[in-house]
């Protein structure tokens, strides 16, 4: 029997959750690889990643923001500079 779509999607969601936790722990897997896997799953299963996940890594080099980033606040926006690739992202300050 084929698993139905929702079940497969739920498995993918759980997998993303697991990978996200892995990304925040000491891991032997390169973290940029974990991020790539998360993105792959979200594209394949049409899953919108939560804000937490989306804001936890650099979209350019797929490297998680850990110690290698700089935060600036400018005109009500948060500017995050990735010190790995110098990519700058802007976020609204969430209330
Ligand atoms: Zn980067």
UniProtKB/TrEMBL annotation:
It comes from the Archaea. Signal peptide: none annotated. One of its GO terms (cellular component) is ribonuclease P complex. Its cofactor is Zn(2+). Gene3D superfamilies: 6.20.50.20. The keyword tRNA processing applies. It catalyses: Endonucleolytic cleavage of RNA, removing 5'-extranucleotides from tRNA precursor. Keywords: Cytoplasm, Endonuclease, Hydrolase, Metal-binding, Nuclease, tRNA processing, Zinc. Its EC number is 3.1.26.5. InterPro entries: RNP4, Rpr2/Snm1/Rpp21. Pfam families: Rpr2 (PF04032). Binds 1 zinc ion per subunit. Its main location: cytoplasm. GO terms for molecular function: ribonuclease P activity; zinc ion binding. Zn(2+) binds at residues 58, 61, 82, 85. One of its GO terms (biological process) is tRNA 5'-leader removal. It is found in: Cytoplasm. Consists of a catalytic RNA component and at least 4-5 protein subunits. Part of ribonuclease P, a protein complex that generates mature tRNA molecules by cleaving their 5'-ends. This is Ribonuclease P protein component 4. It comes from Cuniculiplasma divulgatum.
